[in-house]
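Work Package 3 (structural annotation) set out to generate three-dimensional models for the target panel prioritized at the project kickoff. During this period the team completed the workflow that converts sequence records into C-alpha cells, so that structures can be stored uniformly alongside our sequence database. As a representative example, we reproduce one entry of 319 residues exactly as it appears in the project archive.
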Amino acid sequence: MNIGIQADRRSFLRMAGVTALAAAGPLPTMAQAAQQDFVANSRAQAAKTPIRVTQLAANIHLLQGYGGNMAVQTGTDGKLLIDSSYMPAAPRILAALEALSKDPASTLINSHWHVDHVDGNRPMHEAGFQILAHTKTRERLSTPQTMKLLHISLPAYPRAAWPMTTFEESMTLWRNGDRIRMAHYAPAHTDTDISIHFEHANVLHVADIWFNGFYPLIDESSGGNIDGMIHASAQALTLADDQTKIIPGHGPLGTRQQLVEYHEMLATVRESVAKLKKSGVSEQEAIARKPTATLDAKWGKGGMTPDVFTGIVYRTVNV
C-alpha cells in the first residue's frame, strides 16, 4: 500500500471534506478499505464539525462545514437551501438555519449528486424541504453509483432523499424578492452539475466546477472531463461581474478574478497534457514529465496532487 497516497487522501478529507484521493493507477489493496471507511469516516467528521455562517447579502448566507459549501436564502417565501452536506451534519445545519430566521423550510437545491453535497437530503426533506435538482442527479441518487478514482461504490439513496422536481437545461424560481436562475453545465465535474444564480443579490453558486485555490477533482465515472470543466468555468464567468460573490464547491468564497485565474489554469494544463497525449506519450510518462510544474506552487497545495490531476486530465482530454 502506498503510504504517501494515503497521506494525500487524509489531507484532502481534512481540507475539503469531500473525497479521499487514489493514485492514477490501480490500487487494489486500498479499494476495500476505501469502500468500507470513506462514507463512515466523512459522516463522523461532519457530526462534530461546526457550521460556519457568513452573510453574503441581506437574506443570503454561506454555510460551511465538513462537506461542500452550502448557501441559504431566507424570507417569507420560505428558506431556500443549496446542498445538504453529510447526513450527521443535519442537526447543526438546521440549528444554523433556525438561528438565521423563523421562515419555514421550502426548497433544497442539489448542485450535483456527490455524497458530500446530498447525503443530508433525507433529514432535510423530513424537516420540510422539497428537493430540486437536475434530472441526472435524481437518476444517480436513485441507483447504485461508483466513483472509480476513489475506489468506492455507493448504494441508491432512499426515496425520501431523491429530488421530486427536476429540470433538463435551465429553470427559474422567483423567491424572497429575487430571481434565481439555474443552469445545467455540459458534463464537467460530473454530468449532473448546475449553477445557481441569485440575480438581484448578485450571488452565484457554481458548485464543484470550481475548487477555489487548488486542483479540482473531476469524476470520470460520472462523465466528468477537463474540457467540460473549462467550458463550465467559462460559462460561470459570463454570469459574474467584479462585484459578484461566487461560491465554489470547495474552498473560500471567491471573486470573478479568482475564477478567471482558475479557468486559465485549467486551460493551460489541458493544453500541455493534450500535446503530450497527441504525441503518443503514455499516461505515466506524461505524469513523469511534470506538465504542471510551473503551476504547482499556487495550485498544488490541496488534496488533489499534481500527478493525480495530470492523470485525470490525460484520461479525459479529447485530442
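Residues 1-35 have pLDDT under 50 and may be disordered.
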